[in-house]
Structures are given as structure tokens and as C-alpha cells.
Specification:
Shape: globular
Number of helices: 8
CATH architecture: 3-Layer(aba) Sandwich
Structural class: alpha/beta
CATH superfamily: P-loop containing nucleotide triphosphate hydrolases
Bound molecules: 3'-deoxy-3'-aminothymidine monophosphate, magnesium ion
Largest sheet: 5 strands, parallel
Helix content: 40-55%
CATH class: Alpha Beta
Low-confidence stretches: none
Strand order of the largest sheet: 2-3-1-4-5
CATH topology: Rossmann fold
Number of strands: 5
Radius of gyration: 17 Å
Distance between the termini: 25 Å
Mean pLDDT: 94
Length: about 220
């Protein structure tokens, strides 16, 4: 049997203000330091963020989130998904060359934030089918009240406690479905703890994957 390993694909999900971006960046640095690979390419780890607001599609998403534009709920959903698809081959290439890929949000945010508007779960999931599947999804679990108390929400669309409460319900449904369908590991992390403790819990979940993974890159819900 070949001993060739590929990189692991790790996704961090959660509500707004759950500490995702802080933790993703801490985890990125820790992964970077975890193995001594010298300065040689390929990189050991890359951190991606969805939405990626730097692309042409990402700029449309950014304008929508800042309420500079209005879009039909279906149309913006498909843009968020397209924003992942435009990076799908990049993700696959990184994993194949042995780089660990960390993503701050992914398809699960896509489903959760649109399904709460009343569009069906199946319709929301459909455009995500076939994307590179994470090997591990870390859901930073925080109650919307605690999140709101953390210095308050910003001014973007969805940054309201009632919206977050609905979104969290859909995330719970996704987590249960992922576990039942065996679609890669979904791990809940208590994000109400302090920053250092949360970082430690995340590290415990990720460390076994640091040395890479045997087997093909899976595709979401395929
Ligand atoms: N969001 C994010 C979606 O509605 N659909 C998606 O597919 C993704 C990836 O965008 N409130 C929402 C969740 C956030 C908002 O994300 C901006 P961030 O991580 O705050 O930049
Ligand atoms: Mg935000």
C-alpha cells in the first residue's frame, strides 16, 4: 500500500461572534509551528476564509452584507456557493500536495444562513453537493445571548440576536445530519470558555490530523 499522505481539510464553523476568526488564526499559527518543515514549499498549512471577499463574486457578497445592494435570497445563496466553488480546485491542489487547509466558515454557514430565511434545507444544500469535504468540522458553540454580550454585533446583515438564534437551530440540524450520515467528523467545541481554553480544545481535536491523511479527498454529500 502506498504511504503517500494528503493534507487534512479542517473547517471552523459557528455563529457570528463565536470567536471563529481569532481561533482560526491561533490554530493556523500552531499548525505552522507544529512540524519543522524548514522554508521549503509546499506550505504546511493555509488559512482560507469564506466568504472570500477579494474575488469578483466576493465583492458582490461584500456589498450585499453591507447592505449596499439588495439581492434575491436565492441569488445571494448561489453567490456564496459559487464563492466556494471558485476555490474548490485550489483546496484540492493544496490537500494533494500535503498542505493542511483550514477554512473559517464553509458550506454549513451557507446552508444555515439561508435556510433560516425559509428556503428549504434541500434547496440550500444542493449547490454545495460535490465540494471538497472537510475531514473535520469544528463547530464553535456559543449561545446567541453570550455572543451578543461579547461587545455587541456589527452592522452587517444577519448580525442580530434573533437571526443568530434561528441560524443556530439550522446549524444544530446540520450537525445531527452530518453525524447520522457519517459525512466526516463534526465536533462541537464549547466556545463560551476563555480564549486559551477554546484554543486548547480545538488543538486536541486537530492534532491527530496534523501529520496528514491516507485516502482520497471526499466530496460533500456525494
Ligand atoms: N454567510 C457566510 C452566509 O450567509 N453564507 C455563507 O455561505 C457564508 C460563508 O456571511 N454573517 C454569512 C455569515 C456571516 C457573513 O461572514 C459574513 P464573516 O465570517 O463575518 O465574514
Ligand atoms: Mg462577521
Amino acid at each position: 500500500m502506498s504511504s503517500t499522505k494528503r493534507g487534512a481539510f479542517v473547517v471552523i464553523e459557528g455563529l457570528d461572534k463565536s470567536g471563529k476568526s481569532t481561533q482560526a488564526s491561533l490554530l493556523h499559527d500552531r499548525l505552522q509551528d507544529s512540524q519543522d518543515a524548514g522554508d521549503t514549499a509546499p506550505p504546511k498549512v493555509v488559512l482560507l476564509k469564506f466568504p472570500d471577499r477579494t474575488t469578483a463574486i466576493g465583492k458582490m457578497i461584500d456589498a450585499y452584507l453591507r447592505s449596499e445592494s439588495d439581492l434575491d435570497d436565492h441569488a445571494i445563496h448561489l453567490l456564496f456557493s459559487a464563492n466556494r466553488w471558485e476555490l474548490a480546485s485550489t483546496i484540492t491542489a493544496y490537500l494533494t500536495q500535503g498542505t493542511t487547509v483550514l477554512a473559517d466558515r464553509y458550506a454549513f454557514s451557507g446552508i444555515a444562513f439561508t435556510a433560516r430565511k425559509g428556503l428549504s434545507y434541500e434547496w440550500c444544500r444542493a449547490p454545495e453537493v460535490g465540494l471538497p469535504a472537510p475531514d473535520l468540522t469544528l463547530f464553535l458553540n456559543i449561545s446567541p445571548e453570550v455572543a451578543a454580550a461579547r461587545g455587541g454585533y456589527g452592522l452587517e446583515r444577519y448580525e442580530r440576536e434573533d437571526v443568530q438564534t434561528d441560524v443556530r437551530r439550522v446549524f444544530d440540524k446540520i450537525g445531527r445530519a452530518m453525524q447520522e450520515e457519517g459525512e466526516g467528523k463534526w465536533v462541537e467545541i464549547d466556545a463560551g470558555k476563555n480564549k486559551e481554553e477554546v484554543a486548547e480544545d480545538l488543538w486536541r481535536a486537530v492534532e491527530p490530523l496534523v501529520t496528514g491523511i491516507h485516502g482520497p479527498i471526499n466530496r460533500l454529500w456525494e
